[in-house]
Design a protein that fits this description.
Elements (H helix, E strand, L loop, with lengths): L1 E8 L3 H10 L1 E4 L2 E6 L1 H14 L4 E7 L6 E7 L4 E5 L2 E5 L1
Helix pairs in contact: 1-2
Protein name: Type I-E CRISPR-associated endoribonuclease Cas2
Organism: Salmonella diarizonae
InterPro entries: CRISPR-assoc_prot_Cas2_sub
Length: 91
């Protein structure tokens, strides 16, 4: 199990409701929780299916040098870039 953070912008209410099933919404569009890899992947599948025209970033704790991984989805997304094993963000 690892900590997961999901930040959403302009997503449909049905996705926000679906995320609230597994994660705690601590602020509008910001969700946190402690999930297994299987549940995290299932949440990501829901995000890609129900995201509409919005955009989403999901970050979770890992045993990497930075201590976390992340992925993005949607039109206004920032793109993850690997720089010698360190994940950075390209705009």
């Amino acid at each position: 199990m690892s900590m997961v953070v999901v930040v959403t912008e302009n997503v449909p209410p049905r996705l926000r409701g679906r995320l609230a099933i597994w994660l705690l919404e601590i602020r509008a569009g910001v969700y946190v929780g402690d999930t297994s890899k299987r549940i995290r992947e299932m949440i990501w599948q829901q995000i890609t299916q129900l995201g509409g025209v919005g955009n989403v970033v999901m970050a979770w704790a890992t045993n990497t040098e930075s201590g976390f991984e992340f992925q993005t989805w949607g039109e206004n997304r920032r793109i993850p870039v690997d720089l010698d094993g360190l994940r950075l963000v390209s705009f």
